[in-house]
Specification:
Elongation Factor Tu (Ef-tu), domain 3; SH3 type barrels; 2 domains; six-stranded antiparallel sheet; ribosome binding; RimM_N_sf
Length: 168
């Protein structure tokens, strides 16, 4: 089963064993939506409560009840199984589901592989890794991103004219 890393335990919080977790995802809502976290050794921690605090998440789990127990988890990454994550509305995708997908133009010609998303604050920018050369950056707007087809494992894009000439 595929796992998705949500964050890293950075410290205990308080004497009752709450965890300070630095999110490694832009979707911190997942900490509030999920009912468990997995440690790297597959140990499952049941979430009792989670809340944002400054730039971290404070998470209370059933299995950890003291600061000493929480301290032993410092530095460990926490994850969840991909299939347990909430379904997203139509037209929204988890970045992890897109990474590695082939990216083609409207004629079906391979441009590269989906590598990452840069979040700029207004529009996401998709990073496409071509077979050779520099990464191609494409703003996620309907004129550029023509289709995301998870079932057939491909992303169809229309590159801005200046990018098309660079990759040929």
């Amino acid at each position: 089963m595929q796992k998705v890393v949500l964050g890293q335990i950075v410290a205990p919080h308080g004497v009752r064993g709450d965890l300070r977790i630095m999110p490694l995802t832009s979707n911190t809502q997942l900490f509030l939506d999920m009912d468990y976290l997995l440690l790297p050794n597959e140990r499952r921690l049941q979430i009792v409560k989670a809340r944002p605090h400054k730039n971290i998440m404070l998470v209370t789990v059933k299995e950890i009840t003291s600061i000493e127990e929480a301290e032993k988890l410092r530095g460990q990454k926490v994850s969840v199984y991909r299939e347990d994550m909430p379904e997203l509305p139509e037209g929204r995708y988890y970045v992890g589901d897109l990474i590695g997908l082939p990216v083609v133009d409207e004629e079906g010609k391979q441009i590269g592989i989906f590598k990452d998303v840069l979040q700029t604050g207004s529009k996401d920018v998709y990073v496409i890794q071509p077979p050779e050369g520099r990464d191609i950056l494409v703003v996620n707007i309907p004129e550029n991103i023509r289709e995301i087809d998870l079932q057939n494992r491909r992303i169809v894009v229309r590159l801005p004219e200046w990018d098309e000439e660079e990759i040929r």
